[in-house]
Amino acid sequence: MRKQIAAANWKMNLTAQQAENLMNELVALPHQLYEHQQAIFAVPFPYLQMIEQKLHGKQNVFVAAQNCYYKKNGAFTGEVSVEMLQSININHVIIGHSERREYFNETNEVLALKVNHCLENNVTPIFCCGEPLAVRESNTQESFVAKQLDESLFHLSAEQIIKVVIAYEPIWAIGTGKTATSEQAQDIHLFIRNHIAAKYSERIANEISILYGGSVKAANAKEIFSQPDVDGGLVGGAALNAQEFNTIINSLK
Ligand code: PGA
CATH assignment of 4-249, given 3.30.470.30, 3.30.300.130, 3.20.20.70, 3.30.200.20? Predict the structure, then answer.
């Protein structure tokens, strides 16, 4: 069975003390991760090590960065490389979140370089895709998402793409309280899987985890995750509350 993943995206939230409190509260709550399930915490750079140390040794639990640069090292003030992340045991990174595309002008081409850099260093990219409201309203979300995949992922070999986690996040559902219906999520997840199958193979497509993101919360996680092509979620707001996120972890299939 492909991996079912509850990924928390803390974004630019919480002080160090608040981050520590949240994690202490969360680890004390009852949850069980089976072999095929994972919990991933994408936290701000300054807290990576602290959270990693707190979770170190826990089965199927990982800490992720929210971004990285695509160069190995050098004069790139303010950037963080994959080698740096690896050197502190961080082996997952969110790539191409819609907020980075929108506010930091990250293009499909730049994201392809970032994905390459991750894979060359055995770091798992959690690659985000998803359409804005206008695209959804014109019912062209499939071609929009296909282009994001074509331009940022489809240069990869089969052995490489199988290591990528995809997060489909419709921009109109992020932080808006407006969730895609579970049917809408299933439809586009199936489209993404079929698109991968057409380029690679059905076997490859069936092994790639596709997470849904956009106003996932304790109250809707089980319903969304129950869809056959939804393999968990990338969670923003609700991941800042220990009880909420714990319920989301426990909603994985
Ligand atoms: P949200 O954010 O759960 O607050 O909608 C999801 C995300 O942006 O990853």
Answer: 3.20.20.70
